[in-house]
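JOB MANIFEST
job_type = single_chain_structure
chain_count = 1
residues = 372
[input]
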Amino acid sequence: MSLITIDPKKREKLMLIACAAIFLVASIPVSMYLFGSSVTNMQNQLETAQENIENLENKQKAGKEAEKKILEDAKRSLPSDEAIAVAGYKNWLTEIITSLRFEGGQVTHTGTKAVKARAVRGQTNKELSDYYKNCQFTVKGKTTLNDFGRFLERFYETDTLHLIRSMTVKPIESARRIEVTINIEVVSIPQTTNKIFSAAKKEKDEMDWSGMVRTVASRAFFSPYFPPQPSRTDSPPPQQPRLADATKHTYLNGITWSNDKPQAWFNYRLEGRQSIVKIGDRFRIGPTNCELYSCTDKDVELLIDAIEDGKRIRSIWAMQPGDAFYDAEHMRDLEDEKENNTENDAAESFDDKKVEESSSDENHRIAHRDIE
């Protein structure tokens, strides 16, 4: 068998063609992988760019909203001139406590500090540390709870950038008057166009200020507190007389002492008032006639007059601070006490009769002896 002889040049050409084919086949998956990675990277970069654009748009939107809010608040700000702002606001507070007749009332400007905050458009970094000023004031004086509520009404109905940071209220003169210390902060924004301080009222104010004042004035904040006592279970009480809704909304707020005599504080929530009752005082709770029968540090006893089946019934009911009249506990009927008193009176009358008879017999014997 003879061997086929190939020309060396032709053989070299065939080898080059084979190598090129092998390289081409091997490069196809590599090219596909590299191309896919490039597309993925481009997509990731595009998504990142879109997120950055959205974040910048959100920041720009928030900045515009903040700028708008700042410019709106600037209308309610104190004047930018510190001296004018402090003098105007101080005079306004002084006018309020004077009209409400605060005893020893005084208003003090305790200081002003510059507060750093976010700059708005058109504001340079140099102005950043002087963005707004926080002015502090302190109001002191002696007044009543009612006038204190009216002070809060006058304060909060004013459309100004101010707030009460803290306050201290102390009772004096048996809690009839109070001593108040109020710390107030008010803001001055440089963008304001106000030249003087104007205490304008809010355009839309849905707060019931008169109701708030009545609520503050009717509260017995400084009455002695007595912890709730366990309910008495000695004997099951009879059914309580539940005559009207007023019995559910009349509460015993507390018990105080005046000139060594106890007095009970009743709060009539339906009527928006309260009363101070002493032992022996008569009053009404709804249709029920009551009398304060006794009063101790822990509870009170009420004498209740009621008509049942045409018969008058007088009974004693007990209440503790925090109880409603509706939850009063029946203690006893006064008929039992009347029977006991009748027996005692009969015994005393019998003894007195025996003494009189003995005395009469003695006088008779003495007279008979004189005749003899």
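[summary]
The two ends are 203 Å apart (CA to CA).
The helical segments are 8-74, 82-99, 145-156, 209-218, 334-371.
exit_status = 0
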